What does this fold into?
Amino acid sequence: MAQEASSSTSSKTISLKTGDGEIFEIEASAAKQMKTVQRLIDDLGDDITIPLHNVFSKELPKIIEYYKKDITGEITKDFEAEFVKDLNDDEVKVLFLAANYLDANKLFEFLSQNIADRLESKSVEYVRKYFGVENDFTPEEESKLREERAWSFRGIKEDE
Amino acid sequence: MERKNSKEIIDIEKLPDHVVIEIFIRTGVSDWTQISCVKKQWASLFRTECFWQAALSHIYPFTNPSQTLPGPIPPGLAKRRFMALHISEQIFGCDPDIQVDEIVGHGYLFLKEQLQLSIMPPHSGILHGTMIADQFIGCGKSRDVAHELASRVWLAVLDNLEENHHTFCLLKRLAQEGDVFLPYPYTRSIKVQWRVFEKLFTDFRDCFNHEVDYYDMLACAKSRFQPIPSAWLGY
It folds into this structure.
């Protein structure tokens, strides 16, 4: 856990402590990409271990991996595809929420797109299950809504 | 391995609207019907200006949302503009980063709405399509281009009118109005006139209550088009 005392930010690392008490190191330049972290650094200083109550040891390494690539400018479509390839739906959700909490814009947009892709052409029930959401429509309300929606884009060729 | 906050973390439900919207705008239009049926709060998101502005800036980034369009047809709020762009893209296969294409979509929406109002006959500016052509001229298009675009809008609208009695009456009216003199570029093009008759004699053949009406309309068609397709003589 060598902390450089030099003034060059490129070799400076920041310590992050997860909600379950584990500590991870990231480059200061990567930390800059996560606005929440950067704000905490601005408030607490960069020699202190930054506490992240809502991010845990399961997901933080993955996030760090992403931004390690980002600061070297190496994020490619292939890398992104690999990144999400083995993630199940819950894992993607957790990462998405973490990226939102950390205000890590690039990762957040990438994961938004990935979740959107996972929902493509899926049924309403599937989407409900995915988000753990209860249906609060009556069947009549739901079919009325469908009719309205179909109307607003009627004439557009869409898959039903 | 107790994660006190894990329930909170997985709770996408508790996310603020503007975050959830980021997912929705990336699924694409065809999934929005499904998404809005998931729960009432999500359905209500599709009625917010916030959602439609996000959709516009993500899907049609070249459009300036605060731009006002010249011409008589108002662009409306973000949802309307989005629909116009979407329609332009889907129906007209246009390039979404040129201003004229949004105009084309607006023309389509406007004409379709006006024709489907229960007023019969429609206001003459609508019936003759002068407002549509004026819209394009107002945007600096030449008369030829305005005429062509108006034509395409008419054809798309005619193809997408609801199949009901009101439309049948409207089509008859349009067929009979063909004799009204209008200066170029407000004249209804040949292909539009053709499509009106075609729809009457194919999709709406069964609506003719009396054979006399049918033969009158056929005579009208014959006076304009020689020869007429055998499909119009309908069996």
About this structure: The two ends of chain A are 56 Å apart (CA to CA). Chain A touches chain B through 47 residues (CB under 8 Å). The CA atoms of residues 62 and 104 of chain A lie 13 Å apart.
